[in-house]
Amino acid sequence: MDTRTMFRRGFAVSPEFRIGLGVTLTLAAFAATGRAAVPFLTQRVTDLGLMAPGGVNLDVVVQYAAAGAVVLVIAAVLAWRVRVRMVTAAETGLATLRIRAFRKVHELSVLTQNEEQRGRYVSRVTGDVETMRDLMQWTGAAMIIAALESVVVFAVMMLYSWQLSLIILVAFIPMVGSLMWIQPRVSRAFQHVREQMADLLGKTSEQIVGVSTIRSYGVQQRMRDQLREENDDILAAEKKASILASVNFSSTVIGQSLATGLALIGGTIMAVNGSMSVGTVVAMAFLVHQFSGPVMWIIEMLAEMQRALVGWKRVLELVDEEVTIADPGADGTPIPHGHGELEMSGIRLTYPGGPEVLKGIDLTVPAGKRIALVGTTGSGKTSLARLMSRFFDPTSGTVKVGGVDVREVPMESLRRSVAVVPQEGFLFDGSVLTNLAYALPQADESELRARSLAAFESLGLEGWVESLPGGLDCPVGPRGELLSAGERQLVAIARAYLRDPDLLILDEATSAVDPATEVRISRALESLMQGRTSVVIAHRLSTAERADLVAVMEHGELTEVGPHRELVAAGGTYAGLHGAWVAQTRD
Q1: pLDDT digit string (tens) for 68-105?
Q2: How many CB atoms lie within 10 A of CB 67?
Q3: Distance between CA 58 and CA 50 in Å, rounded?
Q4: Considering the entire predicted model, what is its pTM?
Q5: Beta pairing partners, 398
Q6: Domains along the chain with CATH numbers
Q7: Is 420 helix (H, G, I), strand (E, B) or coil?
C-alpha cells in the first residue's frame, strides 16, 4: 500500500479526518498569510518610517506597528481555530478507526486469529492507532500551516525579487536530494520498529498469561532475557531510524544557513547598486528566515510523520483483512426456534498450510438427542465441533442447524441458537452477574438478576451461588481466577442455560475438576442438556454411555456411529476403547 493509496483508504475508513478539511485549510492559509505580512510591514517601517527622507517618521512607525500587531493577533486566533478543528476531527476519526479495527478482530475466524499472537492484534488496535494521535492532532495541523506559510512567504519573496528568490531556492537543493534518498529508508526503518513492538507486546502478553507456568519451571531469567533481547532490537531499530531522520534535519540547517548568506550578500549588492532599498533587504532576510524555519520544522517532523503513517498502514491492513466468515445479516435465514437438529454432509477441512484434518464427514443428530464424539487426541473432534458453531467454515461440505445452512444464518441468530461450553470456562473481570449478562445483553439488571437466580435453581446450583461472598455480585477477577476451575465451569453452564440454545456443544466440562465438583457439574449439565440437541466431546467414556448416539473419530474420519450398546456389541474401535477404559477404571 503506497502513501497515496493509504491516504485514500484511510479517509474512506475514517471520513471524519476529511470532513471540514477545506475550511480548516482556508483558515490555515489566512493564518499563514498574516504571519507572512510581518516582513512587508517591517520593510515599510524601515523605508518610510526609520529611513524617511526628512528623518524618522514616528507616525508611520506607530501605524505600521499597530497594523502588524492586529495582523499577528488575527493570525494567532486563526491558528488556534485550525488546531481546535484538527483535534476534533482527529479524535473523532481515531475513535472510528479503533471501532472498525476492534470489530474486524471479532469478525476474523478462529483460524485467522490463530496465525498471529493475540498481542499483535492489541498492538494494532491500541499502539498503532496511538502513533497517529500527534500527527492528526498537532503535528499535522502545524505541518499544514507551516507548508502554507512557506508557500505564501516564497510568493512574497518573488514579488520583491524573483532573481534573488531563485538563488535562495537553489540553496535548498541538497535538502531535496537528501529527502528523496532518506525518506523511503526512514519509512522502512519505522515499519521494522512497529513490527518489533508488536512482537514485544505479543510475547509480553503471553508471559503475563503464562506466569504460573514460568514460575513453576523456574525460567523467569530466560523469559527476562528474551524480553531484553526484544528491547535491544527495538532500541537498535529506533537508533537507525533516528540517525536517518537526523541526516534530513542537518541538510535543512545547511540549506538555511546558505540561503540566509546568499540573501544578505545578494541583497547588499543590489542595495549598493540602487536596485533594492535597505528596507527590502531587511524584509528579504526576514522572509528567508520565515521560509526556511517552517521547512526545517517540517523536515524535523517527517520522522514522526513516517512513524504515524506506518501505524496507520498497519491498522488499515487489519481493517482490510479478508473476512472468511461472512455474516449474511438481514439477508440471511434465521434458525427457527426449537429446531435444533444438526446435519453435516461432505465435510472436509484443511487448515492453512497444513494437512487435511476432516475427510468427508457425514453426520445427522435429530433434534433433542445427545451425541458423544469420541476418539484419540488429534482425531478431529474439536475441529468438527467448531464447524458446528461456525468458528470457521469447512473447506467443502455443508453444516445445517434446524434445516438451515449455517453460512446463510445471521450471526445474531446463530449465536442465539448455538451455545458452546468449553473445557475451561472463560470469565471476564467483574462479578458473576456481569458474566451472566453476556447471555442476556438486552435485559436490565433486575430482570437479569431474577432470571440468573432462576437459572441456578433450575440447574440445582442455588446453594452454591448463595455460598459465594456476595452471591451473584461475587467478584471473579481477571479470567475468573478468583474462582476455582470448577466454579468457573458452573458460571459458564449457567450462562449457556440463560442463552436457551437449541444446539448445545460441550467440550467435556468435567475433565479437570475434583470428584465432588464433577458430580455437581454433571448434574448441572444434565439439566442444561435436557430437551436440547447436544454434542459432547467425550474425554471420559462414562459420558458416552449416557449419550443417545456415539460417533467415533479416527484420523479425521467418522468410522462408527450408533448407540453405545450397539457399538460395544459390534466389537469395533469403540468397543476396544470402551473395554480399555473399563479395565483401567477397575485397576
Answers
A1: 888 888 888 888 888 788 888 888 888 888 888 888 87
A2: 14
A3: 8
A4: 0.66
A5: 345
A6: 3-319 (1.20.1560.10), 342-586 (3.40.50.300)
A7: strand
